[in-house]
């Protein structure tokens, strides 16, 4: 029976973190920490690790090691070493600083935490969020985490903010993320990355893109359409506050995103990017319409025009749909302040005067101020409106709306005895005003975006019509030149005389008048003077031939007649001579 009870107890401990943690604290005579048990109803552990002592880590890690139901696990550290104004640090001060350092800053505790998280990742069935903030993780710790991540299939969001892991640590984590398709978002803010770390992330993007393309090809068989949103893999990459990435790292990531269809958000605030690195993303946004968030704020070396063109292209890619991954605001962890010592209900102020201890009203007032600062929030499209073409008009409209809101009478709440109620009303009114102004701004920006798209379409249609008109004009000019040349040739042919050739076998007695004449044809033989001169020349030649026959040179003429180079002429002339001799004899 005892074995069955222990098995049941272990199964209960794996599904009920609170009961297991209470039992383990009772075994070592310690009290459960409120920072651990505060959010267990929501299956969440989000604690400040600086406030956990070395002895209190053991029950926490033993309970987390076997747990299967927690969804959110986060360990944060805000401790920073205080610097002395004189700059000289003695050995005694160094020892005092080491003694004051929390347990989470030691190598042993960080390794135990990472090893526990690794075992939890092996057995968990619902862990989605894992966050380490400001904790110094070494390569040994990251190797443990990488083993757990590579075998886990439920983790979706991994954050290592301000953990100073460096390029080597990112390489270790990315080797596990590369083949783990469940991880959707990765946050390496303030991790001392350079362009080498950016190159590692670019390789992960390419590797997952090739795998997704193969899956998409399989889904597209038999006339099916693949669903790209349902395919697993990275969707958001956050690498803010890493100024060593610079333009080279931005170009590497942009080159990897050209062939990717799944990454939707890329955050690169304060990464040392200039205009050259920002321009590398312009062709990416034109061909890759899946990217809806490209955060290049707080990079002062980027020109305003380039930043504005990128924001316009992002607005076109998003369209009227809501953002799946909103714009984020990065806040650096602030070092904890030294609290003043309590002396009989009073504390020493800045000027050395003692002030009475404030009660609940003072606390609520401070809380209201903090809530007002946090409720202001951040509207990401204000940057786009500021750098857009219509920023002056939008600024005037927003100023007019604010003036109207201030002028409109607001119904004052009735005076109440408790200051908390009035402060809550003020908070509610400020929140409603902020929400209304943000909704109006979004509607105006949507209208402007729609008008820009319509104007772009009209411009493209006019450009196409102009190109077709230019090509038609060129064709007509070529045709006109060709027709002019033909007209000139016809005129020259009509001006020049065209004589018809006489066939060689006919007698010379037949002149050009015996052949049929074409209409409009002119010959030289139509002139009477020319014909008379030709007849006279023939008569003289015939007389010369008669003289040769009658004289002693007849033999010489006979010899010359046989060796003549143009026998055809002799044949033509022979009948003429015979006729001429006949005529003479007669």
Features:
single chain, 586 residues, alpha/beta, eight-stranded parallel β-sheet, two-stranded antiparallel sheet, 20 helices, 55% helix
What does this structure look like?
The chain is of the alpha/beta class and 586 residues long. Helices cover 55% and strands 6% of the residues. Strands 1-2-3-4-5-6-7-8 form an 8-stranded parallel β-sheet. A two-stranded antiparallel ribbon has the order 9-10. Strand 3 (129-133), helix 7 (139-151) and strand 4 form a beta-alpha-beta unit. Helix 6 packs parallel to helix 7 (139-151). It is elongated, with a radius of gyration of 50 Å. Residues 1-5, 336-379, 381-387, 406-422, 499-522, 565-570 and 575-586 have low confidence and may be disordered.
How many DSSP H or I helices?
20
Q: Return Rg in Å.
A: 50 Å
**Beginning-to-end CA distance, first to last residue:** 168 Å
Strand and helix order: HHHEHEHHEHEHEHEHEHHEHEEHHHHHHH
Unreliably modeled segments: 1-5, 336-379, 381-387, 406-422, 499-522, 565-570, 575-586
Tell me the helix content. 40-55%
Question: Could you give a short account of the major beta sheet?
Answer: 8 strands, parallel
Strand order of the largest sheet: 1-2-3-4-5-6-7-8
Percentage of β-strand residues: 5-15%
Tell me, what's the shape?
elongated
């Amino acid at each position: 029976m005892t074995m069955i009870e222990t098995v049941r107890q272990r199964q209960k401990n794996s599904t009920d973190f609170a009961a297991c943690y209470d039992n383990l604290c009772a075994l070592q005579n310690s009290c459960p920490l409120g920072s651990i048990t505060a959010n267990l109803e929501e299956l969440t552990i989000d604690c400040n690790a600086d406030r956990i002592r070395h002895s209190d880590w053991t029950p926490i890690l033993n309970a987390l090691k076997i747990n299967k139901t927690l969804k959110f696990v986060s360990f944060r550290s805000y401790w920073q070493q205080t610097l002395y104004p004189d700059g000289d640090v003695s050995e005694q001060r160094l020892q005092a600083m080491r003694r004051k350092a929390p347990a989470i800053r030691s190598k042993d505790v960080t390794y135990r935490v990472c090893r526990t998280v690794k075992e939890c990742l092996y057995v968990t069935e619902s862990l989605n969020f894992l966050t380490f903030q400001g904790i110094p993780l070494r390569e040994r710790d990251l190797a443990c985490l990488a083993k757990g991540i590579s075998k886990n299939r439920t983790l979706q969001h991994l954050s290592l903010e301000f953990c100073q892991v460096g390029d080597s640590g990112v390489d270790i984590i990315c080797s596990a993320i590369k083949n783990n398709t469940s991880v959707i978002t990765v946050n390496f803010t303030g991790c001392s990355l350079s362009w080498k770390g950016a190159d590692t992330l670019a390789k992960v993007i390419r590797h997952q893109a090739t795998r997704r393309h193969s899956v998409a090809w399989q889904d597209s068989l038999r006339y099916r359409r693949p669903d790209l949103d349902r395919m697993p893999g990275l969707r958001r990459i956050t690498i803010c506050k890493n100024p060593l990435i610079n333009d080279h790292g931005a170009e590497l990531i942009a080159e990897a995103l050209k062939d990717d269809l799944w990454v939707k958000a890329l955050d690169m605030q304060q990464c040392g990017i200039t205009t050259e690195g920002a321009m590398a993303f312009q062709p990416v946004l034109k061909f890759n319409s899946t990217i809806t968030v490209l955060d290049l704020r707080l990079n002062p070396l980027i020109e305003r025009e380039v930043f504005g063109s990128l924001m316009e292209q992002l607005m076109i890619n998003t369209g009227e749909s809501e953002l799946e991954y909103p714009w984020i605001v990065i806040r650096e962890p602030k070092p904890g302040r030294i609290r003043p010592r309590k002396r009989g209900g009073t504390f020493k102020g800045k000027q050395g005067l003692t002030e009475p201890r404030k009660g609940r009203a003072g606390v609520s007032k401070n809380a209201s101020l903090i809530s007002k600062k946090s409720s202001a929030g951040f509207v990401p499209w204000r940057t786009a409106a500021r750098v857009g073409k219509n920023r002056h008009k939008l600024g005037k409209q927003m100023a007019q709306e604010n003036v109207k809101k201030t002028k409109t009478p607001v119904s004052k709440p009735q005076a109440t005895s408790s200051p908390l109620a009035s402060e809550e009303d003020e908070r509610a009114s400020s929140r409603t005003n902020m929400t209304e102004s943000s909704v109006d701004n979004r509607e105006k920006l949507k209208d402007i975006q729609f008008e820009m798209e319509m104007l772009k379409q009209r411009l493209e249609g006019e450009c196409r019509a102009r190109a077709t008109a230019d090509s038609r004009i060129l064709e007509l000019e070529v045709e006109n030149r060709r027709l002019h040349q033909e007209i000139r040739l016809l005129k020259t042919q009509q001006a020049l005389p065209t004589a018809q050739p006489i066939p060689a076998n006919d007698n010379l007695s037949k002149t050009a008048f015996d052949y049929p004449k074409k209409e409009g044809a002119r010959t030289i033989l139509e002139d009477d003077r020319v014909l008379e001169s030709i007849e006279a020349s023939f008569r003289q030649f015939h007389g010369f031939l008669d003289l040769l026959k009658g004289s002693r040179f007849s033999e010489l003429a006979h010899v010359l007649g046989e060796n003549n180079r143009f026998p055809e002429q002799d044949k033509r002339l022979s009948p003429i001579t015979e006729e001429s001799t006949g005529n003479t004899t007669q």
